[in-house]
Design a protein that fits this description.
39% helix, elongated
Length: 437
């Protein structure tokens, strides 16, 4: 038997999926179906993600920018407050798997949710921090319960501002993250199998997701600057523009050391002049040979008016642009001179759809990672695992529902039964019917 060729030696094992492929050079090779050739294209170096073209949005500076937008801006704060309160009032529902151990697994999940050191609602509220930051990493802490089962002790957030860098594989998969948190600022590595990572988007498999505030950055930035200019303009218009007259030789190139010091002192005093309860300035009375005063301070009134620049309209437009990026511009309805109930209902419906999509993303991560690990630790087969589902964001109009059900039953399209009655009672927040023995 002759020697094997190199091509034969390089062939994959029989169990590895592969297909024949023609290369650019026209040669026949093997294409491995279980391996990756390309990459996601995520821009990162040594675990630090630099994928945004805006430098102010990358790294720790980007996290601080997100934090400032969420905490300091009224429009962003109103939107995030609305989302938080809207989602908190939605009751989570547990779907029981069609399996002999389905009821047991669902009861385990529900009891674990109720038995933590904090409430489930508080956990969901912290998950929502992924909206301004783009991601929310959690490190579940488990405990052995009295019944011998493994449950959750708590589900703590690892604050986004404390994430130092990521451990990423060559194909972009997240292997873990390094955290540096106060007060010790000690570097701690948390592997991926200890993390539950919630993200708003999986674009480029970026572990930091995409903040919902990203598109609002530009109007927020300009609004912030305009508000600062507006405050300075109002102050200067009311107090006056500070002007100091001094001997010309003090600012000349031939000024002595003492004259330069005096000149710098005057400039510093002029910059710090503010009209408040401690306002005042003491200047020496210096006259020339003809008796003219050499130093003088005065506040010169502006010849223009602050009203000439309608900064209020610009700021209002920027607020609208910020809220539009998150479909939350309905928050401004009532603050304007125009608008109708139909328009408000349409806008809130669109916003509710967006919130519903975020809830689906959250539920998917909980089912795929959090519940899966809990069930696996308790040796429950995957076929019996329950699923979390959130209810509807908006409650349908009961009059419309009543008319709809009446027409369907009148046309014998549906037959009223216990399931329909239970749903209608839940919809109207009515007590459930007691079972009749």
């Amino acid at each position: 038997m002759g020697k094997k060729r190199k091509a034969d030696l390089a062939e994959p094992a029989a169990e590895t999926p592969a297909v024949l492929k023609t290369t650019r050079e026209g040669k026949i090779g093997r294409l491995q179906l279980d391996s990756e050739v390309g990459s996601t294209g995520l821009n990162h170096t040594a675990g630090y993600i630099r994928d945004d073209f805006l430098l102010a949005w990358n790294g720790s500076a980007g996290m601080k920018t997100r934090q400032e937008m969420a905490c300091n801006d009224p429009a962003v704060g109103a939107m995030l407050f609305t989302v938080d309160k809207l989602i908190r009032q939605i009751e989570p529902q547990t779907e029981v798997a069609d399996h002999p151990k389905g009821e047991e697994a669902a009861e385990l999940f529900d009891s674990c949710r109720e038995g933590m050191e904090h409430t489930w609602s508080d956990f969901i509220s912290e998950v929502l921090s992924m909206l301004p930051y783009g991601f929310a990493p959690f490190e579940p802490v488990y405990t052995k319960r009295e019944d011998g089962r493994i449950g959750w002790k708590k589900l703590p957030l690892r604050a986004q501002t404390t994430v130092d860098r990521w451990d990423l594989a060559e194909n972009g998969d997240m292997l873990g993250m390094t955290q540096m948190a106060p007060p010790s600022y000690r570097s701690v590595y948390i592997p991926a199998d200890r993390l539950v990572l919630f993200r708003t988007s999986s674009a480029k498999n970026n572990p930091e997701g995409v903040s919902i505030l990203r598109n609002a950055y530009r109007p927020w930035y300009f609004k912030k600057k305009i508000e600062e200019y507006e405050a300075i303009g109002i102050e200067r218009h009311m107090a006056g523009f500070p002007v100091i007259y001094h001997p010309p030789e003090w600012s000349s190139d031939a000024a002595t050391d003492s004259e330069q010091v005096a000149y710098q002192g005057l400039m510093e005093a002029m910059r710090r002049i503010r009209v408040d309860e401690q306002a005042g300035l003491a200047l020496p009375a210096i006259y020339d040979d003809q008796g003219n005063l050499l130093m003088k301070f005065e506040l010169v009134s502006s010849s223009g008016s602050v009203a000439n620049s309608d900064t209020g309209a610009v700021i209002a437009r920027k607020n609208m642009e910020i809220l539009m990026t998150c479909l939350a511009d309905f928050v401004l309805l009532g603050h304007e001179k125009s608008g109708s109930w139909a328009l408000a209902e349409s806008k809130t419906s669109i916003f509710a759809t967006a919130v519903g999509a975020w809830l689906q993303t959250i539920a998917s991560t909980i089912n795929r990672v959090l519940i899966a690990r809990l069930m696996a630790y308790n040796a429950i087969p995957p076929e019996a695992w329950p699923k979390l589902r959130f209810g509807d964001i908006e409650t349908p109009d009961l009059q419309n529902v009543a008319d709809y059900v009446a027409k369907l039953t009148g046309a014998t399209a549906i037959t009223p039964d216990g399931a329909l009655e239970a749903y209608l009672r839940r919809l109207a927040n009515l007590p459930q019917a007691e079972a009749i023995e």
